[in-house]
Amino acid sequence: QMREGQILFAYLHLAASAECTQAILDSKVTALAYETVTRGRALPLLAPMSQVAGRLAPVAGAYHLTQSQGGSGVLMGGVPGTRRANVVVIGGGVAGEAAGVIAAGMGANVKVIDLNLERLAELDKTHQGRLDTLASNAMNIAEAVADADLVIGSVLIPGAAAPKLVTAEMVETMRPGSVLVDIAIDQGGCFENSRPTTHQDPTYLVGDKIYYCVSNMPGGVPQTSTAALTNATLPYIQRVASQGWAGALSHDAGLAAGLNAHNGQLAHRGVFDAMSDQLSLDEAQDFTPVEDILANA
Predict the structure, then answer these.
(1) Which of 7, 18, 72, 222 is such that its CA lies 20 to 30 A from the CA of 60?
(2) Active-site option among 114, 149, 182, 186
(3) Phi-psi region of 255 (alpha: psi -120 to 50; beta: other; left: phi over 0)
(4) Is 251 one of the annotated active-site residues of the chain?
(5) pLDDT at position 3
(6) Known catalytic residue: 127?
(7) Rounded to an integer, what distance in angstroms lies between the CA atom of residue 199 and that of residue 189?
(8) pLDDT tens string 102-121
(9) Which CATH number fits domain 7-37+222-295: 3.20.20.140, 3.30.40.10, 3.40.630.30, 3.40.50.720?
(10) Cα angle vertex 203, ends 210, 101, to 5°?
(11) What's the whole-model pTM score?
């Protein structure tokens, strides 16, 4: 049972859970979210788990494409004289890049879709054309999804709920036995029909399409995930412990971006916007900017 005055520094994903957000507000703890801490444009405490989830996604997708798992029976890399699997990755961030690289390494044809043209140019240059890149819009997504054997969703808006970019109508155009892996499920998912699943029961069918929406995908490889996460988080934890949460946040704007709630009020705009209707929140009473919290700490 958390209580007022305690510091909670962990993955929170509050924008995807009204229940967790309400518990944070009721307990009045100081809640720092790994997933919204920034360093420039990067998310240093989310990146390790994004890399793990991204590398796992094509492996999970390839397994569930096998006929024994209900999939279409397409091999990712094919063999000479047969077609390779078509893989579409929506979102070209850390997780999306990792997913694309592994899928391409398995021999699949890979398309990466992203809204940021500079990011697409970076991916094209870095991977020397091994990943096809497409600008994100409804038409490009619909056309790519229709021809995909495997769609991997890795869309991220830091702290906010993931946008639903793949509609049910798009999925209906896919071949029977196609697979969709939603890495963004911890932030609510980026497919219209996504709902959280577990490692013990990872998939479900919508029509004849397979959805893999496991929350906390890195939990499936805990040795790797724990070491990678500790490498990233320990320096921040040491600073919070030695300087106090307010002192550490005052000296690091990127760490301050991790403050999601304090003393019963939300401090992250993305979380507030996602939860305001669900929890009937009032901005004047339930939201205080980080700068104001630190000024009065």
Answers:
(1) 18
(2) 186
(3) alpha
(4) no
(5) 85
(6) no
(7) 16
(8) 999 999 999 999 999 999 99
(9) 3.40.50.720
(10) 70
(11) 0.91
